[in-house]
Amino acid sequence: MTATSTFRLKALLAGVCLAVAATAAHAADVAGIKFDDTTKVAGKDLKLNGAGLRKKLMFKVYAAGLYLTDKTHNVADIMKMDGPRRVTLVMMREISSEDFGQAFMTGLNANSTKEEKTKILNQTMQFGEMFAMFPGLKKGDTLHLDWVPGTGTVVTLNGKKVGDAVPDVAFYNAVLKIWLGEHPADSGLKPNLLGEAG
């Protein structure tokens, strides 16, 4: 084998390895939105538990991914987890902050008892004020909703922190119930986030 042939073979093998590595890095493809199979929150490695598409009528609203320290199909186990957690939303259409906030409140009210809503009232108001900080979400925007132990619920939009952390874990669990509760925002999205679909 000539030196040129050897070089070409090595280049080809390197290309194949890179392609395999790139494929392995993404655990899920949701309508063209790729979710990495791992991410890091508060210095901890989280695994993609599941990902899916939020639809409203016939429209694609956003792709969502749920990251946990350990994969599980059980909602109760997710609510009891001590470590960091993350919900990632990648917008697939433009939505105003008012509409997004309204959808958030609808989901929260549908999946929380009166006592739970009373307990997290101040945190909910604080969270609502965050929506007023930006005019809306655009297609392609990435929103992370993180639970960071010792800090609280941390929101970042396109890598930039929005507002102050919301400290109560009960609030973060109420947020998770928007997608994982008994009356989820999208009944087709819930099993995907739980890793049950497919």
UniProtKB/TrEMBL annotation:
<keyword id="KW-0472">Membrane</keyword>
<feature type="domain" description="Chalcone isomerase">
    <location>
        <begin position="27"/>
        <end position="195"/>
    </location>
</feature>
<dbReference type="InterPro" id="IPR036298">
    <property type="entry name" value="Chalcone_isomerase_sf"/>
</dbReference>
<dbReference type="InterPro" id="IPR016088">
    <property type="entry name" value="Chalcone_isomerase_3-sand"/>
</dbReference>
<keyword id="KW-0449">Lipoprotein</keyword>
<dbReference type="Pfam" id="PF16036">
    <property type="entry name" value="Chalcone_3"/>
</dbReference>
<feature type="signal peptide">
    <location>
        <begin position="1"/>
        <end position="27"/>
    </location>
</feature>
<dbReference type="GO" id="GO:0016872">
    <property type="term" value="F:intramolecular lyase activity"/>
</dbReference>
<keyword id="KW-0812">Transmembrane</keyword>
<protein>
    <submittedName>
        <fullName>Lipoprotein transmembrane</fullName>
    </submittedName>
</protein>
<keyword id="KW-0732">Signal</keyword>
<dbReference type="InterPro" id="IPR016087">
    <property type="entry name" value="Chalcone_isomerase"/>
</dbReference>
